[in-house]
User: Fold this.
Amino acid sequence: MIYIEDDIHCELDGPYPTVDEAVAELRRRATIAWDAPPNQAPCTSWKTCGREYYVVEYRGEGDSAEVLRRLHVLGISAKGVVWAEGYGPI
Assistant:
């Protein structure tokens, strides 16, 4: 199972069928303003906060799920969009 995780706010979105499809969703999100859903942070200090998006692959489900890999892909905040090395717009 593959999810997008916001590391700062511990939010998961998914599942996605493949890592490539999760990264494609993050490419789409990078075109959306930092202060608009789904990029606007859910905390009360959202104006100075942001999102740190990871793609996480799990084996299994629920509390017994094992993380197989965790890839930092994208950061979004008022300062802009920052892609992790090896990712970015096509």
